[in-house]
Hints:
Layout: H1 2-5, E1 6-7, E2 10-11, H2 12-46, E3 54-58, E4 65-68, E5 73-76, E6 86-89, E7 100-103, H3 104-113, E8 122-133, E9 138-143, E10 153-159, E11 172-183, E12 186-194
Parallel strand pairs: 7-8, 10-12
Antiparallel strand pairs: 1-2, 3-4, 4-5, 5-6, 8-9, 8-11, 9-10, 11-12
Amino acid sequence: MQTEEKLEGISVEEEKKIKKISTIIMIVIIVIGVLVTTDILLVSKAGVGPFLAIRTKVYNDGGTKEYYGLGYKVIKYNQKVGRRDTVIGSWGIKYNTTPETFTIRDLAYSIINDNNNHLGEFIRLTGTIDTKNIKNNTITIKFTDEEEGKYNLTVEAKLLSKNIKDLNKNAPVSLIGIVTDYNDKTLIIENVFAE
Length: 195
C-alpha cells in the first residue's frame, strides 16, 4: 500500500500541497502582472496615474515628479518653461530636460536620411513662422526642398502659452516641445513653448 501512495519519493498529500502552493503563486504573479500592465497603460494612453508606483522625488523645476513601480519608472515632466510630458521605462531612465536641437532643414533631412521620425522626443526646433492660427493656438513652420520635394517638411506646433499674438509671420522662432505625430511630411509638436 505504501508504494501506491508514494510517487517518486513524494506522497500524494505532499503533491497536492505543492500543487496548491504553486497554483496560488501563479495566480498572485498573474494578478500583479495584470495590475502593473494596467497601470502602465493608464499612464501612457490615458495620462492618469501611476496608481501602483511610489513617488520618490519632486524636482524644483515647476513640479516634475518621479515614480518607481514594480519593474518600471515614470517621470512626469512639468517644467515651468520646457518639458511637459510623461516618460515610462525601466528603473534606469534618467531625468532629462535637455532638448535635442534642430533647424527645420536638419530635421527634414534627419527624418528622410536617418529614417527617424523622432516620435516622443523632446526637441528644440528653429525656423521661420509660415502661418499662425490664433483660434487653435498653433503655428506652422515649413521647409521646402529644391530637390523634387523629397525633403519637404511642415511642422505644426501646438503652443502651451497664449502669447501667439506676439509672434509674427515670417519671424524667426525657436520651439521647444514633444514630437507626437509624423504623417505625410507633417510633424506635430505638442506642449510647445515658443521663443
